[in-house]
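Incident log, support desk, overnight shift.

02:14 A customer reports that sequence design results differ from what the structure should imply. Their input is reproduced verbatim below. On-call engineer (initials T.W.) acknowledged and began investigating.
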């Protein structure tokens, strides 16, 4: 059975259903046939300034984006008491997610869930064109 250790960092001004996101991430892991062991993911929900700073620093683009994924680098040390796989970090821009939710006629929780799962697929090495 799979166990998801999800660390969520978000400012209180960015409300979303954390339980819904965790359930969606678990479902995505199972759909990708990761069904056993401990999986650790860090999820940060940030504002436009922070996402733009990350986009510029790591991807050379001076823009606001909806989601960024940072897979754990090979060789990064995990605590000795951690017996599982750390996939890395997902960063979602709340204001951008809110705009996209309006654009796609969704509630913000749906868009955050979609972006978290999209970011997870990137952590797993699944990319789109």
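02:41 Re-run completed on a clean worker. Output:
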């Amino acid at each position: 059975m799979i166990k998801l250790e999800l660390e969520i960092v978000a400012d209180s001004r960015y409300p979303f259903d954390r339980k819904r996101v965790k359930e969606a991430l678990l479902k995505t892991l199972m759909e990708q046939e990761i069904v056993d062991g401990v999986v650790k993911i860090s999820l940060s929900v940030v504002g436009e300034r922070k996402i733009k700073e990350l986009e510029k620093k790591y991807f050379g683009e001076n823009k606001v984006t909806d989601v960024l994924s940072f897979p754990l680098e090979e060789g990064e040390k995990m605590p000795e008491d951690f017996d599982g796989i750390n996939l890395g970090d997902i960063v979602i821009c709340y204001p951008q997610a809110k705009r996209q939710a309006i654009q796609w006629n969704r509630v913000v929780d749906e868009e955050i869930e979609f972006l978290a799962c999209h970011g997870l697929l990137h952590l797993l090495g699944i990319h789109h064109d």
